[in-house]
Amino acid sequence: MAKLNVKGRDIAIFNKEETDYICITDIARYKDANRTDYIIQNWLRNRNTIEFLGIWEHLNNPDFKPIEFDGFRKQAGLNSFILTAKQWIEKTNAIGIFSKSGRYGGTYAHKDIAFEFASWISVEFKLYLIKEFQRLKEEEQRQLGWDIKRNLARINYRIHTDAIKENLIPPQVTGKQLSNIYASEADVLNIALFGMTAKNWRESNPDKKGNIRDYANSAQLVCLSNLENFNALFISEGMEQNERLRKLNAIAIQQMRLLTEDRRGKKLEGGG
Hints:
Layout: E1 2-6, E2 9-16, E3 19-23, H1 24-28, H2 36-44, H3 47-60, H4 66-75, H5 85-92, E4 97-100, E5 106-110, H6 111-121, H7 123-167, H8 175-194, H9 198-204, H10 218-236, H11 241-259, H12 262-269
Antiparallel strand pairs: 1-2, 2-3, 3-5, 4-5
Helix pairs in contact: 3-4, 6-7, 7-10, 8-11, 10-11
C-alpha cells in the first residue's frame, strides 16, 4: 500500500479497481489524532458535504440511491442530524467512500472527495496533500515508462532467441550445446553495447546482484532492443558472428551517441 507524507504525517492510499482512495482517517488526525471518527461524522453532517457527495455519486455511480440521498439532504444541518460513513454507504449504496479494517484500516475516500475533506480540515493541508499526491503519480508514471522499456527489451530478446533457434542451432543438439549457443549470442549483444561479456561484468562487480542488463540505463535499454532486432535479421541472412558483432557495435555507437546527446538522453532518463 502506498503512503503519502504530508507535513510529517503518513497518509495511506489504497488502490481499488484501478482507482485511488485516500485514507481520510489519516487526514483527520491532522486536526485531532484521538477523535478521527467524530471529525468525519461532523464533516458528513454538513449540508455542503451532503450536496457534494450526492453530486459526485450521481456523476460516477449508476447504482446510487437518490431517494435515500434526498432524505439525508433534508436533514443535513439540523442539530439532531448525525451521519456516519457506514450509514451513508449502506443507505445510498455509495462508492466514493468505504471503510477498511485491519492493519491499514480506516475510512477511505476517492481522491476527489478526500481533497474536499482535506479542504474542510485545513486549506493549507489540502494544498500540501495535492502536491504530494501529484508527486506520487508522476513517480508512478516514470516507473511505468521504465517497465515498458524493460518489457520491450524482453519481448525483442524472445524474437532474437527464436531467430537463433531457427537459423543457428543444428538438429539434435544437447541441452548444454543449446545453452552455450544462446550464451554466446547474448554476449554478442553485450560486447557490442557494453564492451564486455556477462562473465566479465560479474567478475568486475562481485558485490552486485543480477546481471549487466539490470544496471542498464534507459538509453541503453532502447538501444539493446534495437540491437536484438538487427541481430535477428543478420542471423536470418546467414551473416557470420564476427561480422554481426562488427556491425552491431557500429550501430550501438551511433545510436548511443544520438540517444545520449543533449536533452534526448535526459528525456529518456526521465521516462519521456
